[in-house]
Amino acid sequence: MACSNTPKTVSTTVTTERFKIEIPRDQQVSSNGINVNFKEYKLSQLESIRFIVSGTFGTSVLKPTEDSGLARVVIPSEISQIAGQLEWILMEHEHFLEKGDFRLMPTASLGTVENYLGPRSITASKRDNTMLVTVPTDSLDNMLPDDTAISMNHQFKGQTVKTPVKLKAGFGWKRIAAPLVTGRLSTGSTVGVISSKELVADVFPDIAQDFSINYERTHPFADGNELMSIKTSQIKDAQGNIMTDGTLVNFFIVDEKNNHWQTTSSTINGYAFAKILHPELPCTLSVNAVIKGMAESPKMTVDFKSIITEIPKAIFDNSTLKVGPLTSYLGQLVQDGVEVELQLNETSWILLTKDGYVSQELDSLKFPKGTYSLTVKTLGLESTYPITID
Fold this sequence. Notes:
By secondary structure, the chain is mostly beta strands. It folds into four domains: 13-105, Immunoglobulins (Immunoglobulin-like); 110-204, Macroglobulin (MG2) domain (Immunoglobulin-like); 213-304, Sandwich (Immunoglobulin-like); 315-389, Immunoglobulin-like, CATH 2.60.40. The protein is 1% helix and 52% strand. It is built from one helix and 34 strands. The protein has one helix spanning 77-80, and strands at 13-15, 20-22, 27-28, 34-40, 49-55, 58-62, 65-67, 70-75, 84-92, 95-105, 110-118, 121-123, 129-138, 149-156, 159-166, 172-177, 183-191, 194-195, 199-204, 213-216, 227-232, 248-254, 260-266, 273-277, 283-291, 295-296, 300-304, 315-317, 320-323, 339-344, 347-352, 358-361, 370-378, 381-389. The strands form eight sheets. Strands 12, 14, 15, 17, 18 and 19 form a six-stranded mixed sheet that branches. Strands 1-2-4-8-7 form a five-stranded antiparallel sheet. It is rod-shaped. The N and C termini lie far apart (134 Å). Mean pLDDT is 89; it is low at 1-16.
């Protein structure tokens, strides 16, 4: 009899000259093994009989046993509890006596419903999705047959969608389109009264869109001391979702002399903040912010004025050249350490303020009595005038 994957209509026994054997029929899997009984046999020749069975597990050669006048071959539970097609051959020595096949089908007793979800992180856009895969099994861990009905479900923002699906090759699956708002997408499946565990996918914002920046400061003066705050507008994606906290924003600053600075900030509720120290010299800064590879702001210019309006005239007293006091926009002395450059004819010094003044002692041999040209440079201002040394 030829092998076949379809059930066959055959007699319940096979007769040889010495044996009558029951033919296994299609049946459910069993954890107790399967008995193949001999209706008639010769005990003296039973040792020469072999029952060969093949399936997804491999091939096994089984010997018949005899007990209390009953001979049988026992297909062990390691084989009988695995669903699938089994092919068998009955042999005596090297001679084929009979062959056939039968199916082991999953039990009606459901075991578990395993779910797999991925990717577990998706973006709120029409181009993204996640897939839910369901693998239900019977109580012996066999996949259920094709066309078994299952319900694959997902919930987002209180809205539940249930999709009926039929198993194919032991699996059920469906693609779930990404919602266009951020949140948590919950999924699960049911087969009959058995439910799977809940699996969750996080929906994150899509790519950031361009944004704007502005600044706040207490005054417009280049004092080298005050901090200016730069703040972005609330950064969102194309769907209006606020960008995830911790999104890195780089702030780039360039001055008129093409000097560059950079600082980095992380978003909180879609906003990023940066602090920039006021320059020491009057200038115009160009500032823009960038989320690398995604979005940027237009450039913004910020002007800074000198903290002083004029440089006091230098005085020469007791061999010392002295400039000051330097007072800022509120009339107070400038902070210590402000750089002042003095140039007397071809000789120059760079000095630092102390209590609003700088002073330089002059060598009378190098600078005898006479009139010299003095240039004073500080805080972006420059003043040149003659000075008499006597």
